[in-house]
Write a structure and sequence with these properties.
Helices cover 23% and strands 21% of the residues. Helix 6 links the parallel strand 7 and strand 8. It has 307 residues and is of the alpha+beta class.
Length: 307
Amino acid sequence: MSKRGKKNEEVADSDNGTGPAAKKGKKEAEPPILYEDPPDKLTSKDGRAAGLKITSWNVDGLRAWVKKKGLDWVREESPDVLCLQETKCAEKALPGEITSMPEYPHKYWAGSEDKEGYSGVAMLCKTEPINVTYGIGKEEHDKEGRVITAEFPNYFLVTAYVPNASRGLVRLDYRKTWDVDFRAYLSDLDKRKPLILCGDLNVAHQEIDLKNPKGNRKNAGFTPEEREGFTQLLDAGFVDSFRELYPDQAYAYTFWTYMMNARGKNVGWRLDYFVLSKALLPSLCDSKIRNTAMGSDHCPITLHMAV
């Protein structure tokens, strides 16, 4: 979630049992309900072993994340592909610790053309893709460094940092245009071969996907327009992999504001996704939320596929 939009939910999220209302009744705050990431499933429904591991992480500033030892976690997780969002770092300023990583000899970076230190995505691969492209082919969307697409033999991998509607919803109209154009881009790719989309999609799709839905209906990330945009993406032939496997799992979030100890209280939002073409569903093994990994206001997510 963009920092420009992160102040919106503070008021709505503040009364979670520890605010003024709780003090009036002199009730002690209930302990937070935390999500425990279950053991990884490494077999698809049809019995094939997982052979592809992808991790996605909004790092909220690559340089700061590297200093917070984010790469130590990556080495331990050891995905085949690492996708990063909100890198906020021009290519010339990338930390040597990540540009020199021998584990990932094939590295791809996209940054904002107009605003240095804004937006930005990256994709680091152990195996070289057939082809890599940047953006979605529309100039109005491609100046902010939000999308990288890699073609592999059996699938496309798209990593995206979707525009935030921003505080006061000043970018909501732009976001609605983005959603339509991005969906068309993905649908065109899907006609060629199935795809995996990962990243910070800046929407909590359903009420189960955030702690305080009632107070956030008019805030960036949970407006009816943004939620409908995600519904339309799924209706176009795609699947939210986490909800496919864990349809009723509550309290599973990937973003927590830095304010008010939101992460400790698990007052969060699920904004980060692996979305799959329906054709890839038989290959799905697991979709993980690594909510104990620190270093950003988002946690990483990991996908296991038998591809």
